[in-house]
Design a protein that fits this description.
177 residues; GMP Synthetase, Chain A, domain 3; 2 domains; three-stranded mixed sheet; 43% helix; elongated
């Protein structure tokens, strides 16, 4: 294609956009969504580093916190996850509707296209992530020197529930030898 042909086709596309208010609104909304996502993605880079440390970091931090509970003594923690979690990418949604009338019957057809929003930085590109969903916790084992005391065991379970959000039936506490 030569540049005159490209310019002509671009003019046609611009005229179609000017003529259709719905397309204009979709474009403005998409630009706003991209701007907001890029803003939050840039402001959340420090948080992402700590999130990628994963379950080993969580278990180590939990061991340290549980050891500080009166009567718990030395502790070990193991957390078992179901899968690796998931991510929700930012997407633009373009939809168009056509209405046709044939023999007195009105038919409306809507077509929807979703496109993942990509951002490039430093030569690398990737999807903009709106949300990271952690993996589901299958179970947690806490082994503590003071777990033989029922009141300490209850405190350990409550502490683990508070940190992980896991229900009590997924947490088992054992006394360390």
């Amino acid at each position: 294609m030569d540049s005159a042909n490209v310019k002509e086709k671009l003019k046609v596309v611009v005229e179609k956009i000017k003529a259709n208010k719905n397309i204009q609104i979709v474009i403005v909304v998409a630009i706003c969504v991209i701007a907001v996502v890029v803003y939050f993605a840039a402001s959340g880079t420090k948080k992402k580093k700590t999130e990628t440390q994963g379950s080993v970091s969580t278990a180590t931090e939990l061991e340290s916190a549980l050891s500080a509970i009166k009567g718990a003594g030395k502790t070990k923690v193991m957390i078992s996850y179901d899968g690796e979690g998931s991510v929700v990418p930012a997407e633009t949604v373009n939809s168009s509707s056509t209405v046709t009338t044939k023999d007195g019957v009105v038919t409306e057809k809507t077509v929807e296209n979703k496109n993942t929003i990509l951002v490039s930085s430093g030569g690398n590109s990737g999807a903009v992530i709106l949300e990271r969903k952690p993996p589901e916790i299958i179970g947690i084992i806490v082994i503590a020197e003071g777990a033989g005391d029922p009141s300490v065991a209850v405190k350990l379970i409550r502490a683990v529930q508070t940190v992980t959000g896991a229900s009590a039936d997924k947490i088992t506490v054992f006394e360390m030898e």
